[in-house]
Specification:
Helices cover 28% and strands 22% of the residues. It is built from five helices and six strands. By secondary structure, it is of the alpha+beta class. It is globular. The termini are far apart. A hairpin with a 3-residue loop joins strand 5 and strand 6. The chain has one domain (15-141): Cytidine Deaminase, domain 2 (3-Layer(aba) Sandwich). The structure holds zinc ion (ZN). Residues 74, 76, 105-106, 108-109 line the site of zinc ion.
Length: 156
């Protein structure tokens, strides 16, 4: 789905980092800081992410590329995996910070985010201070998750 289509959704907002609510700004700052830890020797596309768990804790991640490409870990994945490892199972929002562009997660990360929380807010931010806010259900309509398999992952 093109950004123009996503922009028509009621959850979509566009603006500047300084316009964010304090908790959103903190999440974007955590993603910005996380980007400094990226290891993208092949694409040189630096990405930082930060996910806010319902517990109030923020977990950061950065992309770490593999010479074989497939084992590459995306920033959003690393942030969510760190949170899951620490016992988190419910999430409020995820911020993704990039150099240029809207900072929207790729298709793989949309799936990962959707499975972590199908109503999660997603904030894309870049070095120009531009932001977009949307919902994962708008980035991944009709997404597939554990619910479709009748599984409650909170038990695990
Ligand atoms: Zn990704």
């Amino acid at each position: 789905m093109a950004l123009e289509e996503i922009a028509k959704k009621p959850s979509f907002k566009k603006g500047k980092i300084e316009d964010l609510e304090p908790w959103q700004k903190e999440l974007v700052e955590a993603a910005k800081e996380a980007r400094k830890h990226a290891v993208p020797p092949y694409s040189e596309y630096y990405v930082g992410a930060a996910v806010l768990a319902e517990s109030g804790k923020i977990y950061q991640g950065a992309n770490y590329e593999s010479a074989l490409y497939t084992p590459t870990v995306h920033a959003e994945m690393m942030a969510i995996d760190k949170a899951i490892f620490e016992g988190e199972r419910e999430f409020k929002a995820l911020a993704c910070y990039v150099g240029e562009g809207p900072g929207v997660p790729c298709g793989l990360c949309r799936q990962k985010i959707y499975e972590a929380g199908d109503s999660m807010e997603v904030i894309g931010a870049n070095e120009k201070g531009e932001i977009i806010i949307t919902k994962i259900e708008d980035l991944l309509p009709f997404g597939f998750s554990a619910k479709h398999l009748g599984v409650d992952i909170s038990k695990y």
